[in-house]
Amino acid sequence: MTVVEDFSRSPISACPACTVVPAAERIAALRAERDGRIVLSLPGAGGAETISTVEAALLAVPGVRSARVNLTQKRVSLLVGPGVTAAALVGVLEEQGHEAHELDPGLLSATETDRQGRDLLMRLGVAFFSMMNVMLLSVAVWSGAEDATRDLFHWISGAIALPTVIFAGQPFFKSAWASLRQGKLGMDVPISLALILASSISVYETWMSGHHAYFDAAVMLAFFLLLGRYLDHRTRAIARSAAEELAALEVPRAILLLDGIEIETPIAEIHPGDTVLVRPGARMPVDGIVLHGASELDRSLLTGESLPVRAGEGTVVSAGEVNLTGPLTVQVTAAGKESSLHRMADLVAVAEGAKTRYTSLADRAAKLYSPLVHILSFSAFGYWMWATGGDLRYAINISAAVLIITCPCALGLAVPAVITSASGRLFRKGLLIKHGTALERLAEVDTVVFDKTGTLTLGVPEPLALADQPRDVVALAAALAAGSSHPLARALADGARALGIAPAKVTEVIEVPGQGIEGQWLGARVRLGRADWCAAEPLPMTATYLSVAGKTHAFAFTDRLRPGAEQAVRALMASGLTVELLSGDAAAPVSDLAGRLGIPNWKAGVLPAEKAARVAELSARGHRVLMVGDGLNDTAALAAAHVSISPASALDAARVASDIVLLGQDMAPIADAVRIGRQSARRMVENFLISGGYNVVAVPLALAGMATPLAAALAMSLSSITVSLNAMRLK
Amino acid sequence: MEILAILIPVSLFLGGIGLAAFFWAMRTRQFDDPEGDAHRILTKDWDDRPKP
Fold first, then answer.
1. What's residue A130's pLDDT?
2. Nearest to A542 by CA among A561, A560, A555
3. Residues A50-74: pLDDT tens digits?
4. Domains in chain A: ranges and CATH
5. What would the pLDDT profile of B28-42 be if each residue is shown by its tens digit?
6. How far apart are CA A463 and CA A461, in angstroms?
7. Which of A252, A290, A400, A462 is deepest in the core (most CB within 10 A)?
C-alpha cells in the first residue's frame, strides 16, 4: 500500500533512473538541448565575400536551420536544431579564416531601443513628406498667389500640416507635459507652444482669409527638431548596442560536478552548495571555498596585485580571479547575482546617480533660453495690444511669429549634431562613448589618474634582462617552462625562443601544482618555481626561481606595457594635465613603471576605498578628474571621477561604471579623446552662439511685426544647416 | 487655374506613394543592415535560381 502511494506521488519521469538518483534528472535536464538562437560576433567581417562564405559554411553544418550575416553590426544570427553548439560553429568559421566569438543572445536586448528608433524614424518620414508638400504650396503663396488661390493653398497646406503636427509632435508634447507637471520649463515647452500656437493661428488666419499662414514653419520646425532627436537617439543606440556586445561576449559558464560527472552549465543554473571544477587558465565563475587541489591565483583584476597568490584546500576564492596552475574543485558559496562581482552593481547605481547631477551645456542653455522666449513673446503680445488699441488678431499673430522665430530649432540640433560627429570619429579610433555628456565632461578635465595592472600594463609578464643570464641556465629554464601553462613559465619560454636559445634536454618533467616544475637533467634534479620550494632568496618583485645542483638563479619579470601607454601619458602631460598613478600593487613594480613613463606622482599598495577617496579629495579641491582603470578595485574610483575610461578587457562592473570604453589594445586614443572632447565642447558653444546670432537678427523684425512666413522659414532652415555644418568641422 | 484641381491631388498622390514605400521598407526591417544589403546585391549565390 505504501509502495503504491509513493509511486503515485513521485512525478512521472522519462528516465526511470532519475527517480533512483535525483541528480541524474538534473543532469538530463541540463544536457537536454532545444532548438535555439545562436549569435556570433564577427569582428573581422567586411565585404560581399564574407557574407557568401560565412553563410554557406554555416548552412553546410547539419542542424543549422538558417544563418544571416548582419554586416552593420558585424554579427551572424543562426537558428539551430538540437545538438549544434556555438563552439563547433566558431570552429567551422575559423577553418574558413573568419574570427568569431559567441555572444549571449539574452544580453542583446536591442528590441526596445529598436522600436523607439523606428517610431522616431516614422515620425521623421511623415514630417519630411508634409514639409516638402507644404513648402511647394507655400512657394506659390510667397511668389504672389492672391485671393481665392491663396486661400485654397492655405486650406490644403492646413489639411496636410495639422495631422502631421499632431502625429510628429507627440514626442515633444509628451515630454513638455511631463516637465510642466514637475513645475519646470524645459526646452520642449516653448517647442510645443510654438507648434500649437503656429498651427492654431494659421487655421484662424486661413478662416479669415488672411495673408500669412505659418503651416510651413510649423511642419519644418517639427522636422528639424525630430532630426535632432533622431540623431541623439541613434548615437545612444549605437553606444548601447556596442556596450551590450562587450557584456554578451563573456558567456558565463562553469563546469559543474554532479556525482563525479562534469557538465558545462550556464552560471545562472548553479546554486550555492554545488561543486564546480575550475581548470588552470580559467576565470573563477563563482565565489566559493576550495575543496581539493593546489594552485596559484591571479587576483590582479580584483586587487591590482600582479604577484600570484597560492591557493589550497580551504582558500576562499571570489569570482573574477584567474586559476593559474592546477585544477581546483570549489564548493560554491555564492553564484550569479549574489557573487561578489555582481554586488558591484550597487556601486554602479550610485555612480549613475552622481553622473545625472551634471547639468549639460544644453540644459544650461535651455535654462537661460526658455524663460526669455516666453517673456519676449508675451511682451510682444502686450505691447501690440496696447499699440493697436486692442487688435487681438494682430497681437496674437506677432507673438506667434516671435515664438516661431525664437524657437530653438538650431538649439535642438546644436548638441546632437556635435555628439554624433564626435562619437563617430572616436569610434573609428577605437573609443566607445557610452554617456551623452561624457565629451563635455572630458573637456573640463585637468587631472588624470591611472591604474597600473591591466590599464597601463597588459597584465602579461615579460622576463627582465634575460640576455644577461648564462645561456645554459636559460636553456634549462626554458626546457622546464615549455610544458607549463603558467603565465610566468610561458613568458620565460617565449623569451628564450626570442633570444634564439634552444631548450636543454630535460627528462621526467612533472608539474607540481601550486609549486612549480621539476625534472632530471644530466642525472641531477632541477626545479623551476616558487622561491621557498627552490630554497632561494625571494626578490621584492614578481620572479621565478631555478635550482640546479644546490645553486639557485632568479628570473625577474616586469609587466608588459600596454601599446600606446607612453604616447598617451606624454601627450596628456604635454597638453597641461596632471598625471597620477594609483596602484594596489607592491612599491617596486609601481615605482619602476612610474619611472619608465615619467609620472612624478605615484602611490603603491592603495586599497580600493583609498582610490575612491583620493579621487574625491582631488574633486573637493576643485580638480576635474579623469580616471582610467580596469579592475574591481577601480570601480569605486571610476564612479567617483568626473569622467572615466576603461579598456574593453576590464571587468563588466568597471566597464559599466565608466563613461568611455577603449575597444582596442592601444592606449594612444585617450589623448585624442581629450583633444576631441575639448574641440566638441567648443563647437557646441559655437553652435549656441550661431543660433543665438540668427535670433538677434530675426527677433527685432518679428517684434516690429515685419516677420513674414518666408523670413521664418529662411531663418529656421539656414540656422539649422549652419549648425550642422559647424558640427561636421570636427577633426 | 482649373489645372490645379488635377495637379495638386496628383502631386499629393505621388508623394503619398513615396511615404507608403518608406513605411513598408521600415516595417519589413530593410534599414536593419544597410551596409550588408549594399554588399549582398553583389553576391552571385542565387543568380541562377531564387533562394528556396
1. 92
2. A555
3. 888 888 888 888 888 888 888 877 8
4. 2-30 (no CATH), 252-342 (2.70.150.10), 461-559 (3.40.1110.10)
5. 888 878 888 888 888
6. 7
7. A400
**pLDDT tens digits, one per residue of A265-279:** 777 778 888 888 887
Distance, in Å, from the CA atom of A619 to the CA atom of A296, rounded to the nearest integer, reads: 38
A625 CB near a chain B CB, below 8 Å?
Answer: no
CB-CB under 8 Å, A72 with B33: yes
A451 has catalytic annotation: yes
Compute the nearest-CA separation of A153 from chain B (Å).
10
For chain B positions 7-46, those within 8 Å of chain A (CB to CB) are 8, 11-12, 15-16, 18-19, 22-23, 26, 31-36, 39-40, 42-45
Q: What's the angle, vertex CA A535, arms to CA A533 and CA A537, rounded to 5? A: 115
Separation CA A652–CA A639 (nearest Å): 14
Q: Nearest chain B residue to A110 by CA: give it.
A: B32
Distance, CA of A555 to CA of A527 (rounded, Å): 13
H-helix or E-strand spanning residue A131:
helix A111-142
CB contact under 8 A, B11 and A133: yes
What does residue A279 show for φ and ψ, rounded to 5 degrees? -75, 160
Chain B within 8 Å of A122 (Cβ-Cβ)? yes
How many Å apart are CA A123 and CA A121, to the nearest integer? 5
CA distance A146 to A157: 15
Of B12, B26, B40, the CB nearest to A51: B40
How many angstroms separate the CA atoms of A237 and A119, rounded?
14
Residue A390 zone, left/alpha/beta (φ > 0; ψ -120 to 50; rest): left
Chain A: residue nearest B36 by CA?
A71
Burial class (CB in 10 A: 0-12, 13-18, 19+), A44: exposed
Q: Which amino acid does the sequence have at A290?
A: V
B48–chain A nearest CA distance, Å: 15
pLDDT tens across A404-446, in order?
Answer: 877 666 777 888 888 888 888 888 788 888 777 888 888 889 9
**pLDDT at residue A88 is higher than 60:** yes
User: What are phi and psi for residue A280, nearest 5 degrees?
Assistant: -60, 140
Q: What is the mean pLDDT of residues A643-653?
A: 80
Residues 131-170 of chain A with CB under 8 A from chain B are 132-133, 136-137, 149, 152, 156, 160
**Catalytic position from the list A188, A287, A298, A451:** A451
Distance from CA of B40 to the nearest CA of A (A): 6
Cell 549565390 belongs to which residue? Answer: B45
Task: Residue B34: list chain A partners with CB under 8 A.
Answer: 72
Interchain pair B19, A69: CB under 8 A: no
- Measured between CA atoms, how close is A262 to chain B, in angstroms? 41
CB atoms within 10 A of CB A139: 14
